[in-house]
Design brief:
Blueprint (H helix, E strand, L loop, with lengths): L6 H8 L13 E15 L5 H22 L6 H6 L3 H31 L4 E15 L2
Antiparallel strand pairs: 1-2
Helix pairs in contact: 2-4
Length: 136
Amino acid sequence: MSEAPNPAEANESAVAPVPVAASEPVVESVIETDVTSDTVTVRRAPKYGRFMTIGGALGAVVALVLTLSFSPNPTPLQQDLGIDSGQVFGFMLLICGAIGVGIGALVALAFDRSLAKRTASVTVEHEVAHRVDETP
């Protein structure tokens, strides 16, 4: 019969203990916190990009309605210039979209001015923690 190695003995031989040097000093760290107070102004502000996007989308809808409200038969001027209804929609989209973006920005600016009246001053505390290493 052959003797199989004991798995416990194989694991012990593979892991060697690491000696700890007694000459290394033990470093203790203390955490200090600094607290500062400041007065800030808090107010709400609208997101201009969203207002302008909604205005542009509404301008696109208006351009579509205006394009579809014209007669489906092209006018003699459109026939002479070779303009179809898709090109009319493109031009209307440029005009109405730009106007919609501008109106959206103006509405956001009006909201910003009306919400500026509701500002509040608040005292805030800023706390910073840092470690101070002490050697014996």
